[in-house]
Amino acid sequence: MLHEWLIHYLSKRQSEKADLLDIYFCYRLLLGRKADDQGWLDWTKRVSLGMTRAQLVNGFLESHEFRMRRTFRKKVRVETPDFVIYADPDDVSAGVLIINDKMYEPHVTNVIRSLLRNDSVYIDVGCNVGWFVLLAATIAKQGKVVGIEPNYHNLQLLYQSINENGFTNIVIMPYAVTDSTKILQMGGFAGYSFVRNDKVGDLEANYVQGHTLDYLLSDVEKIDIIKIDIEGHEPIALNGMKTVITRYRPTIVSEFHPKLIEEFSHIDPQSYLNDLQSLGYKLAVIETSSKIVECSSTAAVMEYWHNLNQTLGTGDLMHVDLLAVPINYL
Question: Which domains does the chain possess?
């Protein structure tokens, strides 16, 4: 088989020195194109002088062309029944779904839509390119929508969407929500980003300003709904939003991804559920059918997550979406 031969061939290439095949794949994988004649000649000369594979890759990563590919992301204008949204076709976590389906997370969309009122104050922590922010703006016309997002490229898409729709009830805060005011290291790709808590320097990382939600929302008069989806950083962020949660008792919609919580926050996932419950909230799971399944305990939520992954055969890769409602409201 061809792929078996290729694996065998590549396994024999143990030298640190770069070769012509390395140049070919750098063009293909990093620049997304075939080599031009002059570029091929330049790189082959450097390789002939003893350039290592690491030096070759770094050369491509530091090239003007590669930097421009990262700076100017693609965008597609998507018309939905409610609003126009700009999305990135290279963003497989959200953009592709929005472009193809003109919809994003329909089960969560249905729940958020059912919770919003004309005068609602809606807070979206980790709002990405703004699907739920734009949705909320169409409903809470006499209310207020706050989107919080640290990813520069997501923000550019979101700003263009807000501008085209002419929404005036949206406020965007270009920060990461965490447990104190500090600089955070972000990792990720395309529209997907996450907070690095290991404090290891990374040349490919971006750095952003972090604040607590208590700080960012210190002057709001009310909060009806908080949605939070920040790739496993939710338990840490929760420590910085307990004042506003206690004061305003909002309904909370939260992604719950135990694997990411363990990997990025280094926290026991069930402790996040315990913290939510200790704040006076009942927990439920939002199924993909939009059905709300109440959970009698945090252990029941964990059991639901385990059973879901077992049924789908996904190990620990799937998340669940939580609905946390103040006691006596569910």
Answer: 2-71 (no CATH), 76-326 (3.40.50.150)
Q: Helix or strand or coil: residue 89?
A: coil
Beta bridge mates, 192: 189
**Nearest CA-CA partner of 109 in 309, 286, 329:** 286
The closest alpha carbon to 282, from 264, 272, 294, 267, belongs to 294
- Reported as a single tens digit per residue, the pLDDT across 140-171 is 999 999 999 999 999 999 999 999 999 999 99
Residue owning tokens 């960012």: 216
Helices (H) and strands (E) in the chain, counts: 15, 14
17-44 pLDDT tens trace? 899 999 999 999 888 889 888 889 889 9
Cβ–Cβ under 8 Å, residues 78 and 97? no
Instruction: Supply φ then ψ for residue 146, to 5 degrees.
Output: -120, 120
In 187-297, alpha helices (H): 213-216, 234-238, 242-248, 258-260, 269-278
Helix/strand/coil for 26: helix
Per the document, the length of the chain is: 330
Distance CA 106, CA 99 (A): 14
From start to end of the chain, where are the E strands?
76-79, 84-87, 121-125, 144-148, 170-173, 176-177, 182-189, 192-196, 206-211, 225-228, 251-256, 281-286, 292-295, 320-326
Structure-block tokens of residue 329: 């409201």
Three-class SS of residue 258? Answer: helix
Cβ atoms < 10 Å from Cβ of 62: 10
Query: What pTM does this model have?
Result: 0.79
Report the alpha-carbon distance of residue 127 to residue 225 in Å, rounded.
13
